[in-house]
Each structure stands twice: as structure tokens, then as C-alpha cells.
Amino acid sequence: MRALLIARLLTRRRLRRLRERPMQAVAQAGLLLVAPVLRVLPVGSGPSGRDIGAMLAASGEPSVDVARLLASAFAGTWLLLAIGGGMQVTTTIDDVDCGSLLVHAAGMHQFLLGRTIADESRRIVLFSIWVLVGIGSVALGAGAPIALLLGLVGFSLLTVSASMAGRAVGLLVYRTASDRGWNWSLPSTAAPALIGGLAALGFQFPETAIRLLSLPPLGWFAAPLFVRLPGVEADPIGIVGGLAVGIVASGGGYLAFERLARDVWFREHALPETDSEKPSGVGPRLRAVLERRVDPPIAAIGWRTVVRRLRAPLPFIITGAIGVILLIHAVEHGLPNETAAYGAVYLAVASAAVLALNPLADEGPVLALILTSPLSGTQLARGYAVGALSIAVPTSLLLALGTAAVGNSVPLTVASLAVVGPLTAGATGCALAAGVLVPRYEAANVLSSESFGLPRKYATVGFLLTQLAVAAPFALAVEFGRTLPVLAGGTAGTVALALSVGLIAGRYAANRLDGYRLT
Questions:
Q1: Total domain count for the chain?
Q2: 438-452 burial: b if 16+ Cβ within 10 Å, else e
Q3: What is the pTM of this model?
Q4: Are residues 353 and 215 in the same domain?
Q5: Model confidence pLDDT, tens digit, residues 402-422
Q6: If you write DSSP's letter for every residue of 206-217 in order, what string do you get?
Q7: Dist CA 393 CA 401 (whole Å)
Q8: Which residues fall within 8 angstroms of residue 31, CB to CB, at 6 or more apart?
Q9: Separation between Cα atoms, residue 4 and residue 9, nearest integer Å
Q10: Is the peptide bond before 217 cis (omega within 30 degrees of 0)?
Q11: DSSP string covering 320-377, please?
């Protein structure tokens, strides 16, 4: 009974949050609906869900390909939910919903059971949208609505088992990392990269991905859907196997999670070490280089910028993942030259934005100390710029080299590589200026282990408009010129604009930071 009361309390609390933030609720629902709606509507290169259902009903013979496709969709969803559950584990009792007093008052077992009921009910409701819109279109197109209900049963078991297994594994990884002195943010940050990498491989090699994902045991979760779906042969072994796997993963995952939570939540968690106490592996060498090249105060600010991004690299990983997708797109669709050119512009602008668009929010509680220190605004601006450029320039050049390697136009490839460095430097200055003009002073908790400064929308829009104007000569030369003189002129124009605008913006950022100093 206590577990049900706790589940009711947590559910009502989340509903109240959604009512207080309606735009966030609309955005989350929109993200959930994007993928299945694209399969229902007659858009894209493939048939819609209703077309697939109609073909199944008209064929009269079992279709192995459709069965594999649906089974792989269920299996891919299981992996996505399991990785997501592992990323969002609670690692201390102070971070639980409604506070630690509720845990002590209700008891550990009752609280975890109630929280699990609330969380899994919410996940089933949310992610069943994928079944209702995506798989439902296939079932309705085949004239078999009963298949949709059976598919919902299999999907509910899939959701619970994936979430519980992911949470148990995530908490186990956290305990192992804590026992061995590792940084928990590294495995938790690697999870989005893993999801992006698996998705990129799936899109690049769809037939292999479908064949692998449709294999047991994950492929068994779609077996209830096949019982009443025309054109797909029922799989009794899959039904029994999916039921067994789901029950074992759900029950075993919950028991393991409860035992791990009893161990981890009540541990004495040490305070996070400072940058000098626990440097990153790349950090000390980079710090030595910075101290030899620039003044010590500037090197210290740049060093802090580098270490923060190495410890919370999720935005940078997302930026790099999009660059990899551009490379895959170039190879797959035969657009190497254009992709190399525009990819270079994207990588330069995006890497600068990730590292320098909102420096004050990344400082956290140290911001007050920095603003009361004897450091001038020029030193602060140069420190932020040095730290950002030490990561942004090598990374953007490396990814641009990979993108340009698929091109077959030597002038365009050379122009793309020539524009990356200056454009990154100029974009860094513009990002600093936009970030201090419209600053945000608090970092946002995007994941349970990731916190970084999300810039304000006006700063982002202003920065992007400026970079569009700076990159316009190069883009126009790539799109309409293609001759060597026009391409050289467009490249020179963008390089000159980027450096001059970046220098002016950097000086403005320094003056603005001088105005923020508390003296």
C-alpha cells in the first residue's frame, strides 16, 4: 500500500511539473512523435506504415522481411531504453524525488517499489506512442487492430525489462567506477556517443542491422504482434521466450537495482576534487604548453576551460557525431565536394559555439571569485579564447580532413581546409561576445551527470546570424563559382571577415567582462 501511495505522489508531482512547463511537454511529445509520424505519412524514400500493412494483407504469404523489420524495431527500442535507463540512475540519496526524508519514512523497499511503478507507468504511456503511431499504422493498414493490442503487451514488457536492466547495469558501473576512483562522467557521457554510433552504423548498413537486431532474445519481444498480423507467421517459441526474457530481466533487474541502491545511496560521497588535484590525462601536457606560450593567468583560465569540457564532453560529442553523419552522408549519396565545404564551415562554427558561447555559466560557484580577482577583462577573454581554440582548432581541422578526404575536387578541398582555422578563430571571438552580451549565469543539468552552460536563445541566434554573414562569401563561391579565381576570392573574403569580426568581437567581450568585475 505504501508503494502505491508513493507512486501516486510521484506521478502527481510530475504532472504538476508538466502543467507548469507546457512548452517543455509539447517539445518532448514532438520528439517522441517525429520518427513514427515520418513512417505513417507518405514522405521519405520508403513506403508508409499503412502501405506496408496493406501489402501484408494482400500478399497472403508470410513475409520474413517484414517480420525482421518489426522485430529489429522492437530490439532497437529495447537497447535505446536500456542505455537511457543506465544514464539516468540516481547515485545519492539526496538526489531522489521528494528528498531523502520520504525514503526514510516509507522504507527503502517500499520507496523503490513505488518509484519503479511510477517511472515504468510513465515510460509505458510515453513510448507506447511509438507503437500506436508506428506499428499501429501497419496493423490498421492490414485490417488487424487486435495485433496492435498484442503488440502493446509485448512493448510494455519490453519497456519495463529494458529500464530495469539498464538501471541495474548503470548503478553497477557507477559503483565500480567509484570503488576504483574513476570519473563517473566518462562512462555516462559515453552512452550518448554509443547511441549515436549505433544509430549511424544502423543507417549506414541497414540490412545487417535489421538481421542482427531481429535475432533472439531481443527479437522475441515483437512475437505477440505477429499472432494476429496478416502476412507474418506466428512464432510460439518467440512468445514464450520473450515472456521469459522480459520477466527475468524485469525481476532480476529490479532486485539487483534495489541491492545496489542500498549499497550506493548511503555511502559517504567525497567532495569532487579540484582541477589541480585530479587533472585529466590530456590536461597536464596541454597546461604545460599553455604556460610556455601565454601569461600564467591566461593559461590558468584556458586550462580550466579545457578541463571542464574534457570532464563534461557531451555537447562536443554531439557536435562530432553530426560531423561523422555528414561524412557518412557524403559517401552514401555521392555529394563529397559540397559536403566537404559546408562540413568545414559547420565544424568551425559548431566547435567554437560549444566551447565559448556561454563561458560564465560554466564557471559555477567560482564565478564570484573570478569577478572579484585582479584579472582584467582582457585576460579573462584571452583565457577563454585560448582554452576554446586549443580544443576547437585541432578538432575541427581533424574532422574537416576526414570530410575532405572523400572529395574529388582538389581546389575545393584546399579551400575548405584553408577556411577552417580562421573561421574557428573568428567564431570563437564572436561566441565570447554573444555569450557575455546576453549571459546565463547558471549551468543546466541536462543529464544526471552532465552540467554545462546552455546559452540564451538571443545569444545563439545573434551568433549564428553573424557566422552566416561571415561564411557567405565562401558559401556563394562554392555554390555558384566553382572556378579557381572565384573560389580563391570567396575563401579570402571569408578568412578576412572571420579574423576582423572575431578580433572586434573579442575586444568587445573583454570590455564587457571588465564591466562585470566586482571591485
A1: 2
A2: bbbeebeeebbbbbb
A3: 0.58
A4: no
A5: 666 666 677 877 888 888 889
A6: HHHHHHHHTSTT
A7: 12
A8: none
A9: 9
A10: yes
A11: HHHHHHHHHHHHHHT-HHHHHHHHHHHHHHHHHHHHHS-HHHHHGGGHHHHHTSS--H
Q: Identify the domain containing residue 405 by its residue range.
A: 284-516
pLDDT tens for residues 223-260?
887 777 776 777 888 889 988 999 999 999 999 999 99
Quote the DSSP letter at residue 266. Answer: T
How many Å apart are CA 467 and CA 476, to the nearest integer?
14
**In the structure grid, which three cell numbers stand for residue 351, read together?**
566547435
Same domain, 214 and 338: no
DSSP-derived letter for residue 48 is -
| pLDDT of the residue at 335 | 58
Joined together, the cell numbers standing for residue 406 give 572523400
Whether 277 is covered by a domain: the verdict is no
> Mean of the per-residue pLDDT values for the chain?
76
Report pLDDT digits (tens) over 454-494. 677 788 888 889 988 999 998 888 888 767 888 889 999 99
Cα–Cα distance, 194 to 501 (Å, whole number):
37
Give the model confidence (pLDDT) of 312-351 as tens digits: 666 666 666 666 666 666 666 665 566 667 777 877 788 7
CB–CB of 68/214 below 8 Å? Answer: yes
Of 297, 162, 167, nearest in space to 242 by CA: 162
Considering only the C-alpha atoms of the chain, give the largest distance between any 2 of them, rounded to a whole number of Å: 81
Identify the sign of the CA torsion 335, 336, 338, 339. Answer: positive
**Separation between Cα atoms, residue 238 and residue 235, nearest integer Å:** 5
Are residue 381 and residue 480 in the same domain, yes or no? yes
Amino acid at 142: A
